[in-house]
Predict the 3D structure of the following.
Amino acid sequence: MNQEIEIVIVGGGISGLAAAYYLEQSAREQGLAIHTTVVEKEAQLGGKIATRRQDGFVFEGGPESFVTRKPEAWELCHALGLAHRLVGTTSSGKNYVLRNGRPAIVPSGPGSFLSTPLLSPKGKLRLLKEPFVKPRTEPSDESLGSFLRRRLGDEMVDNIVKPAIGSVYLGDVDQMSVQVSFGRFAAMEQAHGSVVKGMLALMKEKSAARKASGEPRPAKKPSFATLRGGLIELVHTLAEAIDGAILQDTAVTALDHNPTQTRPYSLMLSNGRMLRADVVVLATPTFVMADLLAGVVETAVIDQLCAIPYNPVTTVNVAFNRRDIANPFDGFGVVVPDTEPSPLLAVEGMSAKFPHRAPQDQFVLRAFVGGQNQPKLAGLPDDELISLVRHELARIFDITAAPTQVHIQRWLPANPQPPIGHLALIGQIERTLAQQLPQLYLTGAGLRGQGIPDCIRQSRDVVAQIMADLQPATALA
Ligand SMILES: Cc1cc2nc3c(=O)[nH]c(=O)nc-3n(C[C@H](O)[C@H](O)[C@H](O)COP(=O)(O)OP(=O)(O)OC[C@H]3O[C@@H](n4cnc5c(N)ncnc54)[C@H](O)[C@@H]3O)c2cc1C
């Protein structure tokens, strides 16, 4: 009888749990006997996904929804039987950017771009030139800022795109790799000479394919979705769907590789136990991968993993009685450009975006503090943080009422900031690992995209790679 293949996944965030889930699913489909163990350092699963439900509120300390244009999270929720728990955003969501201390609406359609006060007539003209701007000839990586400045002009970047993206990715668009999160647009420039032309071509292609297949137009998905009880529902349902072991409150403290052993990997745990594995998946932040791999792979890989920067951020959910607020903010969010003297990165309209998150007589805003430019603010003590946020909410929205609830979540560090050339570097790291540590794989937000759908996609890809690598070995056994 063949022995089960023992697979250890380090990290019980969305990437690690999705990896375990898809591993078990693929193994069942392929008739492969595997056993998975997920090891999670914290007492609770989910990593950055951190929902707190209290007094009728659903507070999100990390991600609060996922984009559906990238289908992986939407599909996973459906596969897990969570379709009835999904809640989508209404299409009428308004986004704002802070301008002279007040929220100014961000244009969402061609007409509103022409009338927005956020762009001067020169900035608007420059935007209209996009289809005629010559494409860059080299396909190599560049910063997202440089890509957008070439295509759309400085004003559009500085006044609208930079604060919006900066508040989502918590970094500087002029330092972030375009290929990691906006590779689709860079590819459109390469293929069609312009992003606008590329988007038009894509729409045409999709409609032609639909007509040819005779299928009716699919039901329109909301742009963003979340789960009724918070994103932690995805984490808990995913964990329940995994047959293997899940060890919580247990860190992997060291990893060793001995190719002469039947199970070549040994992982030391914080509880003193040791796990042996045929296959290891590291689904932690990249600096943790570096710690675990130190001494078992060449130092260049460790240096490369350590060099991926992460910024700290703290989220502060603040609830108010609706009756205490004259004009509750109706937008999904306000982003803060560098030019505004505010200690905040952004404020999100948590209950405006998803009303089920608060009792009807309550209203929740969530402030982001920290990021690349003001990292120290993310570490302020609670009382200072609350008074800073209240001061800003009074200045921006005229809200002076006392909050009914406050929920603070610190991420020190939070999100990775993939620099220019990041994807090539990750490819290089993976090639070295494949040579020096066969059957050890990496997945997670620090590699090829940090949104929840990106993390799920990467774990699916890693599972496909593991299955392909395992098949020849099991065929011979
Ligand atoms: C404030 C904030 C808001 C965000 N908003 C959104 C959003 O709205 N939509 C969206 O799509 N994305 C959002 N993101 C990004 C997204 O949440 C993350 O990129 C994603 O959840 C990361 O998942 P992961 O599993 O790769 O990593 P993590 O969630 O970081 O999980 C890694 C896990 O590894 C564990 N670990 C670390 N070291 C060890 C060890 N030695 N042994 C065992 N376990 C270990 C950690 O405890 C952790 O649980 C947001 C992120 C933040 C911080």
